[in-house]
Automatic annotation (TrEMBL):
Pfam families reported for this sequence: Peptidase_C26
GO biological process, one term: polyamine catabolic process
InterPro entries per record: Class_I_gatase-like, Peptidase_C26, PuuD-like
Organism: Baekduia soli
Keyword annotations from UniProtKB, A to Z: Hydrolase
GO molecular function, one term: gamma-glutamyl-gamma-aminobutyrate hydrolase activity
Record's protein name: Gamma-glutamyl-gamma-aminobutyrate hydrolase family protein
PROSITE patterns in the cross-refs: GATASE_TYPE_1
Length: 263
């Protein structure tokens, strides 16, 4: 939390999640099946903690402005498809479940984080939202029988199934090794780039795998939280950026001159 007590304060990283009927949860007591639950995948919190951050699971009942004011960093997690109407398209044959309420909450959270320069990591769907919030578009569906078969779910979630072509001089070149491999289970990707969106990595077949907005907002199409080697460099980047940001803000607060009362 951003306080005046110093750099030893925990680095609070908010993580978004899904909301669904309790019937989607195996083993839920019958009495509760008609209820609504917030769903958060444990690997996100584990990855944040492994990188030195303090994970905070976010509910959409909170106001995004209040969250951004108190958090040091944000993870916009993966999930179902972004509503294609947000980027001028419409649901097609391969569309998954669409949750307009989640879209609205996360888009506002992203906009505020960008405005406040709060370090942000968008993963899979979160990466796509980073592009959409700036007016970009998405590839509605990547065929399984073409390129790297990005939406193939035959492999374990931790399996590194293809490499990355990192743009030289860009952020990820300083975060990941040149021979890095990543997992892949997405059926959409960034298409036309939004305002200020910079592509910084592609798959061998040319599909966009990572973008940035400025120096504190990073989107990756793969799922680093599922990779076995933790802490993952991408989460370490986020926590380190959040720690530096919180420390700089604390120094600014402490350097403000005291107001002397006069009679």
């Amino acid at each position: 939390m951003r306080t005046e007590s110093g750099a030893s304060d925990p680095v609070l990283i908010g993580i978004t999640g899904a909301r669904a009927r309790a019937s989607r949860v195996m083993g839920m007591p019958e009495l509760l099946l008609g209820g609504i639950v917030d769903l958060h995948h444990v690997p996100y919190t584990t990855a944040v903690a492994a990188a030195g951050g303090t994970p905070v699971q976010l509910t959409r009942d909170a106001r995004p402005a209040d969250l951004v004011r108190r958090l040091d960093g944000v993870v916009v997690a993966g999930g179902d498809d972004v509503d294609p109407r947000l980027y001028g398209s419409r649901p097609g044959l391969h569309a998954t479940h669409i949750d307009p309420d989640r879209d609205a909450f996360e888009l506002e959270l992203i906009e505020l984080a960008l405005r406040q320069n709060t370090p942000l990591l968008g993963i899979c769907r979160g990466c796509q939202l980073l592009n959409v919030v700036r007016g970009g578009t998405l590839v509605d569906h990547l065929p399984l029988d073409a390129g790297e078969a990005h939406g193939q779910l035959a492999y374990p979630l931790h399996a590194r199934v293809h490499g990355l072509d990192l743009v030289r001089g860009e952020l990820l070149e300083h975060v990941l090794p040149a021979d890095v491999g990543v997992n892949s289970f997405h059926h959409q990707s960034v298409a036309e780039l939004g305002r200020g969106v910079v592509p910084i990595a592609t798959a061998p077949d040319g599909v966009c795998e990572a973008i940035r907005i400025g120096s504190r907002a990073l989107g990756v199409q793969w799922h680093p939280e599922y990779l076995r080697e933790q802490p993952d460099p991408v989460f370490t980047w986020l926590v380190d950026a959040a720690r530096r940001s919180a420390r700089a803000e604390t120094m600014t607060i402490n350097e403000e001159p005291a107001h002397v009362a006069t009679s």
